[in-house]
Amino acid sequence: MACLPMNSAYAKKPTRCNADAVSQSICIYQAILADVDKTYYPLRGGGGIGSIEEISTRNYKVKILQEGHTDHVDYTVRIGAGGKVEIVDKKESTENHGPPHTPLGPPIKR
Predict the structure, then answer these.
(1) Residue 54 domain boundaries
(2) What's the first-to-final CA gap in the chain, in angstroms?
(3) Residue 32: Cβ-neighbour burial (10 angstroms; 0-12, 13-18, 19+)
(4) pLDDT beneath 50: ranges in the chain
(5) Residue 2, pLDDT score
(6) The domain spanning residue 87 has which CATH number?
(7) 51 in a domain, yes or no?
């Protein structure tokens, strides 16, 4: 199955973002994914998006898996007039998982 581009008819399907909690979540996830696609990762690598987690009603954490570390992007959002999602704050941090190249063991003696 091929990915749908962000501007496809399905991705642009009108959603009443201020209608209920599920509709709001869908709109918020779409806004966060569009931001990650557009601004955060111009150079792709690693394992991709590991998770998007709702921390509270307007705070979300994105984990992007890389070799040897995980990049975290914390978003604060709000639903503005007409149900439009606005990203009001974004903080980036990195969690390291050890040295990038761990030796497999001592050299073989001959």
Answers:
(1) 21-96
(2) 52
(3) buried
(4) 1-4, 9-10, 12
(5) 46
(6) 3.10.450.630
(7) yes
